[in-house]
Amino acid sequence: MHLPAPNDTQFELPPAGTFLAMCYRIIDLGTQDTTYMGQAKRQHKIQVGWELPEEKMADGRPFTISQRYTWSMSEKAALRRDLETWRGVPFKDSDFGPGGFDIQNIIGKACLLTVVHTEKNGKHYANIKAIARLMKGMQAPQKTENEQVYLWLSDDRWRPDVFHKLSDGMKQAIMASPEYKTLVNGHGDEPPPIDADRYHEEPAGEIPF
């Protein structure tokens, strides 16, 4: 059999600039091995994904872009910084812990994303540079075009049906986490069902979430 030609096809990159965006997915990746400035660490990670409803790919679907965050609300954490600039107000102590802010509330919410392009080892990437709340008078779609996806590695929110729809690479990353192993080994693949309506309460006032 002849050798196949190299496959150097790259995905369409979202354009660089500042765009209206809608959050459509949050995935709990569990504790992952990471390296920062040559130092190995184990950190709890999540992935947040947005679609750009006004920016279309060649097939007519909206561009999407995602960002991995350390699951931390320390004052210097990137997740806290981005959520606060998106909200337009800082978090209060009462927003943390049980009964506080639920990260699932950002699904379906609109923001402004600033996207920049970078190059590394001959490949081009689109990265999120900044997140902000919509400017006064801006209108967002009522819902996302992509299916809204939420997956969390806890007994009360685990959804096997959602997990099995993820890409193989993401499933493998999640399966390597201690949170996934504890969840599945302790409860099999069918943990208790969740009440979906419980996590879609509308926030009060003009704060987006």
Written account of the structure:
By secondary structure, this protein is an alpha+beta fold. The chain has one domain (17-195). The chain contains four helices and six strands. The chain has helices at 78-87, 160-163, 168-175, 178-187, and strands at residues 17-36, 39-56, 62-70, 110-120, 123-132, 149-151. Strands 1, 2, 3, 4, 5 and 6 form a six-stranded mixed beta sheet that branches. A hairpin with a 2-residue loop joins strand 4 (110-120) and strand 5.
Tell me the layout of helices and strands.
Layout: E1 17-36, E2 39-56, E3 62-70, H1 78-87, E4 110-120, E5 123-132, E6 149-151, H2 160-163, H3 168-175, H4 178-187
Parallel strand pairs: 1-6
Antiparallel strand pairs: 1-2, 1-4, 2-3, 4-5
